[in-house]
Amino acid sequence: MDMKKIGSFIRKIRSEKKITQKQLGERLNVSCQAVSKWERGETLPDTMLLLTLAEILEISVDSLLRGGEPVINYNKNISVMAIKKGIEQLSNLGNLIGKDNTVYKCIVEGINKGMVMDVEECFDDQFKKEALIAEMIVQNIMSGSYVDLTEAHKHFKFDHWKKIVTNYANKHGIK
């Protein structure tokens, strides 16, 4: 926990609610000096006060203790290896059932149209294939999935895609 960040957040929300330090202290039965110390990041509110403080500021205790950072709830873990295997299987589907097969043609056409790309070109070029894998990981992160960055780094050959995935994951709280 970052005491300075928490203090700044308390000050910001208190000010937005147009509550003085004295008023907040009175509502919590603490001195305005105690509130001031919280806001300067010198001390933290007593744990017995957290629920009441959060209620007064109309925030969650999680949000309070994270200094206003969003609480991230990942809805599932994704496996980079599974995505990579899936792309490999998809790229081999044309060889398995034939590239003239209606099912294969519709899959390729759907991907090409939906993503405005030539997916078969991606299958033939390792850099572009990794771009497709990176895009799938990013899409999953956007929908609330967690990815293990160590696994991602292990399965990418190109540093460019490692960096893209890492930067995007970091922006979404994945370290």
Automatic annotation (TrEMBL):
> What's the domain of life for this entry?
Bacteria
Query: Quick check: keyword Phosphoprotein in the entry?
Result: no
Report the InterPro entries cross-referenced here.
Answer: Cro/C1-type_HTH (IPR001387), Lambda_DNA-bd_dom_sf (IPR010982)
Q: Which PROSITE patterns match?
A: HTH_CROC1
The protein, known as = HTH cro/C1-type domain-containing protein
From the UniProt annotation, give the residues forming the signal peptide: none
Under Gene3D superfamilies, the record lists: lambda repressor-like DNA-binding domains
**A Pfam short name:** HTH_3
The record, for CDD domains, names: HTH_XRE (cd00093)
Query: Which UniProt keyword terms apply here?
Result: DNA-binding
Domain HTH cro/C1-type: from-to ranges = 10-64
Q: SUPFAM superfamilies, from UniProt?
A: lambda repressor-like DNA-binding domains
Q: Name one GO molecular function term.
A: DNA binding
